[in-house]
Design a protein that fits this description.
Oligomer: single chain
Helix content: 25-40%
Order of helices and strands: EEEHHEHEEEEHEEHHHEEEHHH
Radius of gyration: 19 Å
Strand order of the largest sheet: 5-4-1-8-9-10-11-12-13
Number of strands: 13
Strand content: 15-25%
Length: 347
């Protein structure tokens, strides 16, 4: 039987990472603790998460040492990355890193004369929290026309984020709907110009609490100024369920909202009016938070693998993704911190 396929369509960036005792104030200059660079981009991170979490590190190493130049999946799932990089050192570097994790990069274009996307990441050592500035580079060239041939196949799931042009994202979602392919949308970063039509018939919507609140307000469904304070803690089950049901009413089947150290809230649409059935899961145990940069992308990848490969229910997929994200924040960096399947354990 042919392996199942997950297509990740999105950004590939080189991460320029500075670690600092604290974030500088406006106009302030600080001496940083360290500087490194590494592979990143939400699309590439999620592709690596899908690939690593669907196999063990030993499986991939054995396949890499014995395989030819053509791509061969090392487990019962094929992970395809679709996007664009520049014709520079960083572009080649990113492709090599993806292949080392078991990702098929045949559909990643190298755009002549363009620079590879970059992300400047500042990580505060004490809390592990980060601030990120993105320069799109080659990611801005990802258009519906440029990836049309890649969409001719019918994967089991398409994963999208919002670090490529929004018209491209909306066109892909419409094409997937027409072909009956499930889509997982991770609307990060949250943008104001995401049309309502995106949500109709969307199978999976995964976002953090800030993104969920912002998108709800962009849709005109958020609270008025000061209303949030009256409602109290947004992460309580009642408030989270209300938020999920706003997206259910627009046509989303499964809504998942990550809450950082407060865990995860999920809801499954139960009727056409938008009523859903939800639940809260506490955060998985973490020995020490070192870097949260790739936690969300790891969660998305783990959730996708659980759904596609293992046929997991939404609660079980959330539970395993929660564990995978917890392992990620215990290490430095983005892709380098993403665990392999055997490092997370069984579902």
């Amino acid at each position: 039987m042919a392996p199942k396929t997950i297509q990740i369509i999105g950004s590939l960036n080189i991460d320029l990472i500075t670690r600092t005792p604290r974030h500088p104030s406006p106009g302030e200059t600080l001496t940083a603790t360290s500087f490194t660079y590494g592979p990143g981009g939400k699309g590439a991170n999620q592709a690596v998460a899908c690939a690593r979490l669907s196999r063990s590190k030993n499986q991939q190493q054995q396949a890499s040492s014995s395989s030819s130049s053509s791509f061969t999946p090392t487990s019962d799932i094929n992970i395809e990355m679709i996007g664009a990089v520049g014709t520079d050192f960083f572009g080649n570097y990113l492709l090599d890193e993806l292949k080392a994790s078991g990702v098929d990069v045949a559909s990643v274009r190298e755009v002549e004369g363009e620079r590879t996307g970059t992300a400047v990441v500042i990580v505060e050592e004490k809390s592990g929290e980060n601030r990120i500035l993105i320069t799109p580079g080659g990611n801005a060239s990802v258009s519906p026309q440029s990836i049309q041939s890649s969409l001719e196949s019918l994967p089991d799931l398409i994963i999208l984020q919002l670090e490529i042009p929004i018209p491209t994202v909306t066109a892909i979602i419409e094409t997937a709907k027409q072909k009956g392919v499930d889509v997982l949308l991770n609307p990060a970063p949250a943008v104001e110009n995401l049309p309502r039509s995106v949500y109709k018939g969307l199978k999976h919507l995964i976002m953090n609490e800030t993104e969920a609140s912002m998108l709800s307000k962009f849709l005109g469904d958020g609270e008025e100024e000061g209303e949030e304070e009256k409602r109290g803690d947004r992460s309580t089950p009642k408030n989270m369920q209300d938020l999920c049901e706003r997206f259910h009413a627009l046509g989303v089947t499964n809504v998942v909202i990550t809450l950082g150290s407060n865990g995860v809230y999920y809801s499954i649409r139960k009727d056409a009016e938008g009523w859903g059935e939800g639940g809260h899961m506490p955060a998985a145990k973490v020995e020490k938070v070192v870097d949260t940069t790739a936690a969300g992308d790891t969660f998305v990848g783990a959730y996708a693998v659980a759904i596609v490969v293992h046929g997991a229910s939404v609660p079980d997929a959330v539970r395993w993704a929660n564990k995978a994200g917890a392992r990620t924040v215990e290490k430095e960096g983005a892709q380098g911190a993403i665990p392999w399947g055997d490092e997370v354990g069984g579902m």
